[in-house]
Amino acid sequence: MTTTVLDNIGILVTNSAEIGQGPLGVIENASVVHEDGVVVSVGPSGQVADERVDAEGMCVIPGFVDSHTHLVFAGDRAAEFTSRMAGRPYDGGGIRVTTEATRAASTDQLVAATSTRIAEARAAGITTVEIKSGYGLNVDDEARILDVAGRFTPETTFMGAHLVPSEFAGRTDDYVDLVCGRMLDEAAPNARWIDAFCETGAFDADQSRAVLEAGRAKGLGLRLHGNQLGHGPGVALAVAMGCASVDHCTFMTDADIEALAASDTVATYLPATDFSTRQPYPDARRAIDAGVKVAIATNCNPGSSYTTSMSLCIALAVRDMNMTIEEAIRAATVGGAAALRRTDVGMISTGKRADMLVLAAPSYHHLVYRPGVPLIDRTITTPML
Ligand code: NIG
After folding, report:
1. Whose CA is nearest to atom 12 of ligand 1?
2. Which residues in 126-277 belong to E strands, given as ranges?
3. Roughly how many angstroms between the first and final C-alpha of the chain, as a whole number?
4. Element (H, E) at 140
């Protein structure tokens, strides 16, 4: 097996307080030796290996862990976005538009489109990605989307409970029965997680709970969309059910924050969604100071957040959600790993996956200081599967 050293790193962010300084576990003038996709040693510059890659004094950080995307879809919703920028509010109804386009696409077309988006995400520094279904909304198409997602990542999420499809209009409980029954049976072999959109206009707390319970009975891990468009029962339900993550959290009461702080559920913020839907940004400071574990994800999808830029999400979290730069970088790396219950990614230390980003910048501050500039010079990773 060949060993490779990433040498001459000016600032190395390890996210490990055991080997580095401060909240990001920083080591200056460092090098990282890796072999077969795994870190075998972190030390001063000049470690020796079979091959040498020169970081030229730049900053190296762990690969981004994007714990919330809907990457398998067809079509786009630029017209909906444009009308939103002219003042029309976002209500999630456009999910049905994407569902129609996705049902009409062949599997080969979905694979090709997803492959393009994965390449874009990787170039933007995402080395671990979760992908949800939710644009099929029937038995065959949900299963098909999860089959496609599973070709790219082990972090696949069944989200038949994304919205009630038109053919079930006025019969939400019947649709929930289908999701918990035949749809779940077909989806489960290709899914690691189950999710539901617990929001006014989508699924209420009882319906969302039924979906999560059915998923748990099938051995799936639990996640939930909650508190995106207004206050609601999502966060409390996610905590009560022991979800790994509750995602959006744009509107949270003090009770929601207290419940999260006392739990293992990660609050996953999706700042590019608040940007793209003209929602208010949540105050992450309030949650972090209360002890809530947080992550940041892109939520890449054609409706509410059509971006693979974790750097944009980090900049928004700092600029508009009151996170420090260090907190935002942790949330996009080791925070995302916690939201996926992964301990092998999000850090650079011995035994972890060798997922590393060489920045075209001397320090990680530049990710926020130079917004919109593509600073991911090189993504070092092995295939996710
Ligand atoms: O997480 N909120 C629900 N699902 C997606 C939006 C999907 C869409 O609008 O197509 C989200 O924002």
Report:
1. 304
2. 126-132, 155-161, 193-198, 221-226, 245-248, 266-269
3. 20
4. helix 139-149
pTM for the whole structure = 0.98
Distance of CA 25 from the midpoint of ligand 1 (Å) = 34
Q: Does ligand 1 come within 6 angstroms of the Cβ of 95?
A: yes
Give the closest residue (by CA) to ligand 1 atom 11: 304
Query: Does any ligand 1 atom lie closer than 6 A to the CB of residue 234?
Result: no
Query: 155 — alpha (psi -120 to 50), left (phi > 0) or beta?
Result: beta
CA of 304 to the centre of ligand 1 (A): 6
Identify the residue whose C-alpha is closest to ligand 1 atom 8.
303
Ligand 1: which of 162, 203, 227, 278 to mutate, most ligand atoms within 8 Å of CB? 162
CA proximity to 156, closest of 173, 132, 183, 136: 132
3-state secondary structure at position 239: helix
Name the residue with the closest Cα to ligand 1, atom 1.
Answer: 299
Do 120 and 308 meet the contact criterion of CB atoms below 8 Å apart? Answer: yes
Residue 228 Cβ < 6 Å to ligand 1 = yes
Would you say the CB of residue 69 lies under 6 angstroms from ligand 1? no
Residuewise pLDDT in 10s, the chain (385 residues): 899 999 999 999 999 999 999 999 999 999 999 999 999 999 999 999 999 999 999 999 999 999 999 999 999 999 999 999 999 999 999 999 999 999 999 999 999 999 999 999 999 999 999 999 999 999 999 999 999 999 999 999 999 999 999 999 999 999 999 999 999 999 999 999 999 999 999 999 999 999 999 999 999 999 999 999 999 999 999 999 999 999 999 999 999 999 999 999 999 999 999 999 999 999 999 999 999 999 999 999 999 999 999 999 999 999 999 999 999 999 999 999 999 999 999 999 999 999 999 999 999 999 999 999 999 999 999 888 7
User: Which distant-in-sequence residues (6+ apart) come within 8 Å of 52 by Cβ?
Assistant: 4, 5, 7
